[in-house]
Amino acid sequence: MADLTVSLLGKVLKNPVMNASGTMGYGVEIEPLWNIVKMGAYVTKGLSLKPHHGNPPPRVSEEKCGMINSIGLHNIGIEAFFNIYMPFFKKKNLPVIINFFGFSEDEYVECAKYIKPHSLILALEANLSCPNIKAGGISFGKEPESVYRLIKKIKSVTEIPVIAKLTPEVTDIVSIAIAAYEAGADGLTLINTLPAIHMDTENRNVYIRGGLSGPLLKPIALKAIRDCSEKIPIPIIGVGGITDWEDCVAFFLAGAKAVQVGTATFVDPYAIPKIIEGLRNYMDRKGYSSINNIIRK
Amino acid sequence: MNDLEVEVIKNEKIIKDFFIIEFSLSKPIGAFEPGQFVMIKIPDKSVFLRRPFTIYDVNGNSLFIMYKIKGAGTRLLSKAFKGVKTQILGPLGKGFNLNIPDSCKPVVIAGGIGIAGVHLLIKKLKNIPDIFYGCADEMELRLIDDIKSKTFYTATMDGSYGFKGDVITLFEKHFKNYKKPIHVFACGPLAMYKSFKEKIPPSIHCEVLLEERMACGLGLCFSCVTKTADEKEPYKRVCKEGPVFDIWQILL
After folding, report:
1. CA–CA separation, B201 vs B182, rounded Å?
2. Crossing angle for the helix pair A271-286 and A245-254, nearest 10 degrees?
3. What does the alpha-carbon distance between residue A158 and residue B57 come to, in Å, rounded to a whole number?
4. Which CATH entry fits the domain spanning B2-92: 2.40.37.10, 2.40.30.10, 2.40.50.140, 2.30.22.10?
5. Phi, psi torsion values for A222, nearest 5 degrees
6. Interface touch B219/A67, C-beta < 8 Å
7. Tens digit of pLDDT at every position of chain B (252 positions)
8. Nearest-CA distance from A71 to chain B in Å?
């Protein structure tokens, strides 16, 4: 049977499939349906130094081939996550990527400092789509200079590998990725949701302003991954619109070393285990012994 | 909880935009509480996310949902013919509390399609509840045809049957007559809950079933929140901590 293990950021994962941040709650919610240890790693909901209540409803709208969310970074805070939910992942012995954010450079740094290295913590995934309050609310991930400065600061306070999760709403994502790499990022997650709005035609106003996700995003993510992987040697985790194993293969061929599945889980809560099974069948059928046979060199 | 393969057996219009759809389940849905819901994959490719519906009734391997056409999802659901196959995830959420003390009189208040949310509760309550039902007109009383109670109060907005006006105004006229404590279960539009909170004292226990747009139905995405009086964690997931809430804990 095909070997799905992949080495990523110094650790070996049983397969290259994870959830996208914010699409699997705090991890425990999926338990009634399937065992979370099926995944290569769990990615936390975006966590911050202090809890955030998030946005008032409405927080979601449906699009023709996707959805827009405006959760507003609702989370219980880094401390509560470690107290309440980390024991669950320790019991499961499942590697975890801590997705985190701040509204200032200091908040990112303090959050990164709070997280002590642990054999199960694979990486810190910095969500760079967050608005920088001091810079008038423009997101950290929009300019190479601010990405460089922020990643450099985060790297200086932690021993844990740091992944930069980039927003696609930029003029040139490759220059942003290079800035993150030069600042010492150990990996990239490409791409975050695409900023979008939904118009309410009955009430004639903006119903929701948030991030677009779902199958619409796949070709955009593939291009970002392809372009960045040609210029940058650090591993890329691909995310954006993956619905099935064939999408995953496309991401590996584009240059991703691992993938995250998000919105697909809302449509089919078994999407992730089905994708893992589908990948295995594909590899068996093709006679590939290792997932590295399909990951672009 | 299961993601079940289902087949449409019957999809019948009751009146106007109100329907009851019957699905045959590939296997039993398992134990559930009245007020719990399912996420139905609308059998049409143009609908992306699943849609939440309260379980209206279950009979062996048949699952019944009562719904009203409100938007694209329900419109397409109403066109699902016999034999159409789809997926249903459930049972989900936290239902009504059936274990109320015997010393308490159960009272059910429903507005319009809200009857779909309390239909099963009425059947499962140990003591027969008094029922207050409000709807637009006499025709909509067809929605409660199969509900039996000795004490039935009805209100229609147009006055074509029973009390003319809204159901909370009707309830307000009666609740003081109860000699023993009452426990209210309600399902209806937000305006009904707002009116309840304005007109009825907080000493009256009341559980309400909330409706909210959802993406996952499982507590994964935090899309379907409602604001509560909990200052530490004001936004609660309707799909996970609800859909049944204490009316005095939610901020409308």
Report:
1. 12
2. 70
3. 55
4. 2.40.30.10
5. -60, -40
6. no
7. 999 999 999 999 999 999 999 999 999 999 999 999 999 999 999 999 999 999 999 999 999 999 999 999 999 999 999 999 999 999 999 999 999 999 999 999 999 999 999 999 999 999 999 999 999 999 999 999 988 777 899 999 999 999 999 999 999 999 999 999 999 999 999 999 999 999 999 999 999 999 999 999 999 999 999 999 999 999 999 999 999 999 999 998
8. 6
Report which residue type is found at A65.
C
- Give the fold, CATH level 3, of B105-209: Rossmann fold (3.40.50)
State the smallest CA–CA distance between residue B205 and chain A in angstroms: 26
Contact of B251 with B228, CB cutoff 8 Å: yes
pTM here is 0.95
Partner-chain contact A60 B1, CB within 8 Å: no
Confirm whether A130 is a catalytic residue.
yes
A67 Cβ under 8 Å from any chain B Cβ: yes
Q: Which residues numbered 134-153 in B keep a CB inside 8 Å of some CB on A?
A: none
